[in-house]
What does this fold into?
Amino acid sequence: MRHFINLHDIPAGDLRKIIKDAKKRKTLRNRLKNLDVDLDAPLKGNLLIQMFEKSSLRTRLSFYLAIKQLGGSTLTLRPDELHLSKGGESIADTAKILSNFGNVFMLRTDNDAKLEEFKKYLSIPIINGLSPSSHPTQILSDIFTIEEIKKKQISKLNIAWIGDSNNVLNSLIAASIKFSFVLKIGCPKKYQPNKNIMKYINKNKNKIFIYNNPRQAAHGADVVFSDKVISMNDKVNKKNKLNQFKKFRIDRKLLSFANKDCIFLHCLPRGAEVDEEVFASRKSKVWQQASNRIHVQKSILLYCLNKLR
Ligand code: CP
Ligand code: NVA
It folds into this structure.
């Protein structure tokens, strides 16, 4: 049994295995419908319990289909319906029940410590479906999408992130170190990665660059990423923060500094950080990006349950 909480805790070889497995499985499903089960049904009889403390559309649906396609089933819990939040039942007791009834637990939380606390008491794997500090299933899936489109290993590509220093960027930074790719970050000085993340960046290979000018970050990029300036539960002066990011909005002009065949990715939902022209353009691969979450999460589930081929 293995947990999937943060990319930096998972060996690079294991992350690569997950991507390879997802590729094989996706190809094998060519003609199947969303709810058709993979021929080998490797998770037959298994229950995924998912709980969302924050809103979700893509993660919820993609995990639902992922476990179904592997032959298992899912139950989605709302935290406000559990004794955990309402009646003060402990995480330890909740974890015990989850472990007896389910086979894997996926948690989207507004508190990183909760993932660790659950991990301590669960005897089944836990998957981080987004926390304030990271979004690992999203980024692993995005690497899959990039390699699928570019038909090259990500280590041979230049990746740019133009936007806020948030959970998604933190996982992209961890991925840059694990998969050894160049990552250029463009953001206002005030919104650069925090001290802990900077320490992590500096301790590792010198492939990550930070610019306060979006054009420098976009220069020579094969992939340009962005995300909402205001994340869920972001406790800031929204108007002020949005103003500071105005120059960082992704438009045709900014993309002209990237490579000609660059692609645009965004985990969604979106805000004003990208204009409609770029979002709807041929460079934008956001729908393929969202759909691939199903395939990669299937292989993450298999990895956690020691069933990766
Ligand atoms: N990208 C992503 O995680 O989307 P949801 O918040 O809709 O799950
Ligand atoms: N950074 C965003 C990602 C949403 C999928 C947030 O945390 O709200």
